[in-house]
## 1
Amino acid sequence: MFKLLSKIFATPKELHENGVLGMNARNYKFISKCNKRSLYPLVDNKVITKTLAQEHEINTPKLIGIIEYQHEAKNILDIIGDYKEFVIKPAQGSGGRGILVVTEHNKEIFTTASGRKITYNEVYQHISNILSGLYSLGGRYDNVVIEELVHFSSIFNNFSYQGVPDVRIIVYKGFPAMTMMRLATKMSGGRANLHQGAVGVGLDISTGKALNAVLKDKPVTIHPDTNANLMDLAVPLWREHLDIGSKAYDMTGLGYIGADIVLDKDKGPMMLELNARPGLAIQIANGIGLQKVLKNIDKHYPKNLNAKERVDFVLNGGKF
């Protein structure tokens, strides 16, 4: 299966027979049927998502402040107050675009996660660009979210280059269906986005241990920058990761969703964001067709379970 998904010229018949989910099928069979468009703002707007997460007791980085209008951009220093490190992001951004991570500053010079020094005026301009819709879905005017910086667990130090690694969970009708960890590389600029060159590691849904790994859709076993053996990767507090994904379904009412989770060294697993249109590269990372997994959930998984019971069922290999 893994060899098939990595083939450049795999035929549609081969892909279909192995349960590979394509974009058209994803959009028609799952997104359009499971996700009411009226519910999209619950995940497209990070301010709304954070508010809901707090109501549902889902761990998420603390909100420091929000900037809604251009004239408020000049208040950035007042908003961050004593915070020396923080993250600036668009409320309606996608694909990691427009996220600025600041690790220290003296109110005039700001240091980013990559060690680059930028001026106050550059931070101001970045905020202005977010507000104008440069990074938002559809180019719409946006809000700026400023939140606490996550201090990721040292257990992943050898597995990621500079950036924060995260776990992506595809949740279907409340059940965690497929998972992977995304690891930043020098190529990806420290970002955990596969299309930018991050490593994707498929994880066993029951254990959180590595199954396969890919870089630019090609199989790998060693991280290109840290030389870590990717097959040694195992995510601790795995139950807590799956709990967040399962609760995200109850929180939003969206039946097909991607949950992105990071592991903070002090606060444990934290939900970064949710996605109502999660990508399909997770299949390549796992070497498994997603459509086959989703059909199995439809046919054999019980209905009317709460979040805890759904995770129990998944951890027990899909049976009671």
## 2
Amino acid sequence: MLELAEVRAAAGRIAGAVARTPLLASRTLSQLTGAEQRLKFENLQFTASFKERGALNKLLQLTADERARGVIAMSAGNHAQGVAYHAQRLGIRAVIVMPRGTPNTKVRGTEVLGADVRLEGDTLAEAAAHARRLAEDEGLVFVHPYDDPAVIAGQGTVGLEILEDWPEVDCLVVPVGGGGLIAGIATAVKALKPGIEVLGVESRTYSAMYQRLHGLPVDVGGDTIAEGLAVRDVGELTLAIARRHVDEVLLVEEDAIESAIVALAELEKTVVEGAGAAGLAAVMTHRERFAGRRVALPLCGGNIDTRVLASVLMRGLVRDGRLVRLRVSLPDVAGSLARVATLIGEAGGNIVEVQHQRVFGIASVRTPEVEFVVETRGREHGQALLAVLEAAGVRVGLLS
């Protein structure tokens, strides 16, 4: 079982080569949730993820022979970039096996760091099996993304820094994929402050740690925006540490993770990936559980595909009622479209898209339909805008 001394040794080993990221209070999020929150900005690491810590701690403990042979890792992205970056710094050859569905931003980011990237398998498990075979065939040292004592110890340095910066913290909410981060953090903080609560967070679609801790057969799978949490099963070592030190694992829905990404972008002006937002998603979902408490949240990664981020932000506007879609039936006479557009503008709505339909799905050829996508100030403003149109005799419906 991992001990505090190993985490402290890792902290000394990686000091200066990995950023000591800030732990900052969020007044707005604290007011919104009723919990005093501080955010640990691990998305500000050079590779935008805490994974650098464990990867470097492992690489620094390789023998001269192992360094000469090179290393191999399997990863959906963040571990890959951490291994690739520090292997390049240390002059060690790195081969990275990634599942074929890995976001392009993570594949490209890993290649830029000098790694030999191989896309194999549709899941992490299939990628891992291929990586193991390559390790044997080419004599490479396998660097596991989470189930390795040196990797776990490196990740635990996040917990050391949180306690050093905020000794009064009484709860840490930590995203769980394979379990390396929470195992390392829990080992460190429970040794230094036994009464502190360490909670894990998983996406409901990938809840392997929750299921294992509750004695359930592991059944995971499906689409998730938090690919860093999309692990088929947790590690045996990380599970053993979690049984000993983790108080509970909370589950969150996909829409809660999306909402947390939007909140962090809008309120904290910081970009996080799905896994990085999971902690905030848990606090927002289980507000009563955290009310009045001092809560630290590691924002564990910021490597989100820009296209996905754009979609999440737009979906957030829809979810909050700040972007609405209206269907209007118009008389087929000159000026009717301009009249409705003027009414929307006078009511404070900002038209961002218009689709004029004369052929498909209309009741009469004499009453064409127009769909407006309109930006509003929120749900109440949207309802007020509808009322203005209806009062002016416009036949309008709000599309979900």
## 3
Amino acid sequence: MGEEHPEPAPETLSAGERVLLIDGRRRRRLITLTPGDVQHLHTGTLPHDQIIGQVEGSTVRTSLGAALVVLRPTLSEYVLKMRRGAQVIYPKDLGPILMLADIRPGDRVFESGVGSGALTMALLRAVGPTGHVLGYERREDFAARARHNVEEYFAGAALPPPAQGAARALPLTIEIRDSYEGIDVVNLDKVVLDLPEPWQLVKHAQDALRPGGIFLSYLPTIGQVARLCDELEGSRFAMVETLEVLHRTWHVKAPSVRPDHRMVAHTGFLTHARLLAPSD
């Protein structure tokens, strides 16, 4: 018989963690667990000490007996609940961005603008500790908010651990810079943009990316997309494609199975392209 290995004990919730309180109507409240603190809800009060030490997925009760499920937030949930300085890219677009730009462990990724840090967090999780994300943001207040949100989210174990003996640090640099003036690095793997005039960066991205690298831009209007595609057509970028993602949930409860009355429709267009090597 093979050697038996004991099952690891579930990791309990600890002070300083961000958790979601979810009530019976699936309403979510994001809080930071603080010893001695008390959460005041419309369904009663809930001491944080009552949550600390519990296993994720536990049910706790308020002073009025209301049941709340306690979970660590997913990235999607955190993005929707975190404090914002600028409008965020929503989860329905974050996943496709990672796939279309083929963000993978070890990638060197350039991002602009950083905004509130939603896309930054998704990129960091994808590149892992061996990659790096460089962000340019023109506004100091947006950059500060993004840094705060990113550091708060990764305060736990959301990012894979570093190599043995290495110091734990986020592979992230945010600079207060205007990316329209240029990108001061080369041999990047990916350039991901959330800017109103990305066509101004096509030449800069062409110079900064390695051959085969991917350019991706998120834009709200089709007029902006047309202007960008015109600029890409005269460059070394090829295989240009534009798409949008629509998100529709379903009501699945007998005897009624139907699409929900509301859906998340247009938020933005995703345009991506590959950089070709210089011709002889």
## 4
Amino acid sequence: MLKKLLIGLLFVLHTPIVFSQVFETSPPDHIKTITFKGNTPESQLPVIRLGDPLVLEFDALNAKEEDFYYIIQHCNYDWTPSILAKTEYLRGIDNQRISTYENSFNTYEIYSHYTLTIPNTLTRGFLKSGNYMIFIYDDFGELMFSRKFMIYEDIASVGAVVKRTRDMNTIQERQTVNFVINSGRINFNNPMETVKALVVQNNNLNTAIINLKPQYILGNELEYRYSEESAFWGGNEYLYFENRDVRVGNVGIQFIDLKDIYNSYLFTQEPRKGREYTYNPDINGNFKITVIDSRDTRTEADYTMVHFSLRMPELPPNEAVFIYGNYNSYAIDNSNRMIYNSDRGMYECSMKLKQGFYNYKYVIVDSEGYLNEGGISGNYWQTENNYKILVYYRDLGARFDRLVGFGETTSVNITN
């Protein structure tokens, strides 16, 4: 009980008096493979219907069978903590230990696999829609990582289509998302002020377009037919590899080597920018844990050291190359920064990853933090991308932002 009170106190101390935006926190080195999902088999951004279950899983690679605790915070549209009391948005209590865990079996890398499912005995579900953040603490009250998720009410319907941008300067490189919101059972009051739309490409909140206002209001329909305001860079199809069999080279893997653990050396890539677009089926930056000869991927999938290499000239000192994908929630940190090897004329990086199928791409980040996703891969209007549209509504006098609608589309059938 003392430990729980300590964690609760630390959470209060970490929460500023003046609400500011809450950001996801990357985990320490021994926390790996965070999969956070709803009623989908993929490890993607959780956008779930109010009342549906939520599952968070992760591995701890220190072989200590640590105790971890979770705290849940309701947030506004802009990811500042809402003013709602815990009892207003949560049925039951949080600040509880994650009691479901299993140890790895027959693996070179020893780890414990943790699973948190909501609803559970103590946290029985959510009462409000909107944005949420979950914080995971260790037994000493130290924050391990945090993740965002969204819960929506299935009230407003969203229809969307993807088109090429009308800007002739970037018509070969960008895609525009046009959509229509039907308010359904809600009569939107003053929608120019009370309704906010969010468009997310490939489950990546870092590049989401926010604060879109309706361009036209026709009865109970809100139309968004912008050209520039809702345009995304098309990017390129993700590169991928699969190492579900650690003993044999598989898709994207040149050769393997057994040291303390298995090492997987990927084929060296080269920049694709400036080349002709080539369709290459991917899962839009996602990843999936798979093992060829195992019944339980949670505890029988092993960890391998994956070696990435990119052959290209060295960039100026104010620019760096990173390995980008949903395997770490699109984070940019030292763990996925590539180092230039002047002797070999290429960028290199090694990461410990669980067996599976992974999408990734190489991106450039400058010293100001600007991310150039197409700087190495290129941008193409033909690229197949997934788009999610989320509709938030705060009625006049309301105390929080409801998430009242959710729509999804792809650029498979993109039109002019």
